Amino acid sequence: MAPGHVAYGLHAQYGLQIAPDIVVAWERGQLAPNSQELTALAGVLWCAPGDLLGAARTLREHRMARAMTVEDLARRVGMDVSSYRKTEEANRWRGSERQTAALAEALSLSPRELLTATGRNDELAELLRSAATTRWQAYVRPVAKLLPMPKRHLEAVLQQLHADYQARMVTTSSWGASGGTGESGREFLDRVVDHFWELAPG
Known about the structure:
The protein is mainly alpha-helical. It has helices at residues 3-14, 20-28, 35-45, 49-53, 59-65, 70-77, 81-90, 97-106, 111-117, 121-133, 140-146, 151-173, 183-190, 192-199. Helix 12 (151-173) crosses helix 14 (192-199).
């Protein structure tokens, strides 16, 4: 459908005054439609909003892909609208464990998608490094706050991460090993999030 026809459909069906050059900018990824415009655009093109977004990564993109309003999602996660709106604008999630679980359910997010959408990848990496190098038991609750996972499963994953790291360190410090440099351990910590997802598919 030509940009002019799309613009006409947006006006005729939804009352939106969108110039054809704006439609072209949307197509090229130079501009992004807001929630109302995306829903209307999907209606004009006879598709779901998610079909227009590609792979959603942010909270806003996941919400829009499911054609949910800010008000609807805020209500479902138990947060006031203004607080949720600020969270989405900053792309930084500060909800409680219960709200995080509700968010994942409302948006049908896998644990990995949830972590990316809430902007907490770096926070998880830091916690996992600490769990691998010190007492892993102390990090079960902090990690659980980021990811709604069964406690026993999370405990098993953190225990295995810790064991894998410690085994590498013992190997590199043994007689005849690579000089005890700890290079294997450093490489493990650099990729600790990848190791976590290998043990806890998400």
